[in-house]
Amino acid sequence: MALKLKAAKKLLIFLGKSVLALVEAVVFAIIPKPRKNVAGEIVLITGAGSGLGRLLALKFAQLGSVLVLWDISQESNEETCKMAVEAGATRVYAYTCDCSRKEEIYRVANQTYKAFLPAMIANNRGHLVCISSSAGLIGMNGLADYCASKFAAYGFAESIFLESFTKGQNGIKTTIVCPFFIKTGMFDGCTTGCPSLLPILEPEYAVRKIVDAILQENMYLYMPKFIYFIMFLKSFLPLKLGLLLGEYLGAFNLMDGFTGAKKKN
């Protein structure tokens, strides 16, 4: 009898919390979440010398954050640093760092996910942002290695979130960003077979959506919104029907014209 009462109590608590979560989701779907204040907060941006990294640095500079900029190119990173100061940042620190080399990361600041987390856990405070990709959600023809790295990044960030949640570290937030191709030069030559549903994204638009997701503490951000629908379809469509849809959208030929990012002389 005691076991049945315990099970019933557990079920009622689950149902009650589920209803509250659904109501909250509906409310915030209608009324945008309040945005948190990041003025004075330390924001570390990797790849800050160009592309999304530079644009994110400028956006957070306007919001009054203290910027720590990492990039493999000292010249590009220092240029971003100057631009951030002009955009209103009061404190900006630029470091030359190759984030693909562990020893470089520890040499520069002794900080990575691995080294950040103990301090975040101790203070129950922080926000981890993972820039994955739509290629981290669905395999893509011609992008096997890139997909592997982005699937790994997505899974790693989601796992870190769940570990923090399980330990009661609710002050540590996570945002996982999965955009379609962005016009940063990385995927020069790539095309989209259905620009109305899967447009190649403008960098300014992508950065605006990313910063909004961070300030509203959203867990997931897929861009464009059609990616959400694709993931929904992927969960139940028969394989053959999914492949037909991919062919219709031109999803298997996105890389046909790929030329790669143009290197600076």
TrEMBL record:
Pfam families: adh_short. Keywords: Membrane, Transmembrane, Transmembrane helix. One of its GO terms (molecular function) is all-trans-retinol dehydrogenase (NAD+) activity. One of its GO terms (biological process) is retinol metabolic process. SUPFAM superfamilies: NAD(P)-binding Rossmann-fold domains. It comes from the Eukaryota. The chain crosses the membrane at residues 12-32, 38-57, 226-245. Gene3D superfamilies: NAD(P)-binding Rossmann-like Domain. The keyword Transmembrane helix applies. InterPro entries: NAD(P)-bd_dom_sf, SDR_fam. GO terms for cellular component: lipid droplet. This is Short chain dehydrogenase/reductase family 16C member 5. It comes from Bos indicus x Bos taurus. The gene is SDR16C5.
